[in-house]
Fold this protein.
Amino acid sequence: MRMRWLALLAFAPLTGCGLIYKVDAQQGSLLDKGSVEALQPGMSKRQVLLIMGSPSVISPFDQSRWDYVSTMRRGRDKMDRKDLVLHFDNDTLASIEGDYFPENPEQLMADARKYKRQYPDEKRSDEDKKKKKRGGEG
């Protein structure tokens, strides 16, 4: 009995040494590259809102700046942060600065496959997939 407790106490410090798996974590705005490229100076706030969606941060003191913030941590790596900033002048888009994590559907699917997840299209038979491509059937 004493040896079990001793063994338990010996292995307890190892639990924080990276032996436990850490999942990838993405938080914030996952932006589509096409949407960001569609932004043009001179657009209204409403047009930008329809293309980009709601910003992560709107300062109550400075309504002329919208921030789309996102962070990404892969496993135990350092957290990366991107901030896409839109500046408005009299409710029209004046400038775009910063960077973003572009949404990459192929990479998202590859990451999901690591964890054995399947998307609805992957669960269909190959015959059903061919029918959809040929005739637009369900």
Observations:
- The two ends are 63 Å apart (CA to CA).
